Amino acid sequence: MPTPSATLPLQYIRLIGDQLERMGVRVAGWLAASGLTPRWLRDPRSTIEFAQFRELVMRAVAMSNEEALGLLVGERLLASTHGLLGYAALSSGTTRQAIEVFERFTRLRAPFLDVGHTVRAGKVRVQIVEALPLGEVQRSVLEAVVLSVKNLLDSISLGTFRVVRVSFPFPAPPYASLAREMFDCDVAYGQSWTGLTIPESALDVPLRMADPNAFEEAAAICERELEKLRANESLAARVRRLLLEKQNGFPSLHLTARLCHLTARTLHRRLLNEGTSYRALLEDIRETLAIEHLRHGHFSIKEIAFTLGYSDVANFRRAFKRWKRVPPSVHRELAERRARKAKSR
Question: Is the pTM of this model over 0.85?
Answer without folding.
Answer: no
